Amino acid sequence: MSYNKEWLCWSSNELNDKIVEKILTTCPVRNYAKGEFIYRQGEKKDVCFLVLKGRIEISSENEDGQRKVFGIREPRCFIGISTLDGSPSLVNAICLEAVEVAVVSAQDINKGDREVLLYLLLSVIQMNKQLTSQLNGQTFDDVENRVENLLVTLSATLGKHEADSVVVTVPLTHQLISEMVGSSRVRVSQIIGELNKSGELVMNRSNYKLLKKSAL
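User: That's the sequence. What structure does it adopt?
Assistant: Structure tokens below.
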């Protein structure tokens, strides 16, 4: 299996307390309800957002209704940086639950200190790595490997180690996995079923468990 550890599709805690406090001293806070869009494909903005509470899906959709999920963002992550120049957004940012964000404008960034600018730059670098890794997976890996890479990566970054397994507590449905890896839900369900039968994986709607003996 071609395990790519750079695909951190479920991101959180990219900023420390000091940076968050600096941003909150000058930037307004905005709240969104579950299901609301923070921004949509094609929408022009000259702001980005720092996630403070909640969970946000970053995705795109074509004219036929086909969806691609690029990642999930949780607190202490920036989103929407690519629209700071006023260009149209290429993706949607959809609230999966109640969300609170700080609205960071281009003017705020121009007046900001070097440390905040550094974290913005690091966020851009990380997002570029994620997108490149996803593109490599879509190009060179089959669907089974893409599903396995996703599960292993999440267990490495978000997993809680137990005696014989790693437990990952995220709401990861077959539909969401299919939209992340670029396949059909039916095919993803087949792969998950095979992993469950082999004893390598135990999965439900709120969490999944990988046996430590298995590297998938």
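Residues 10-139 form a domain with the Jelly Rolls fold (CATH 2.60.120.10).
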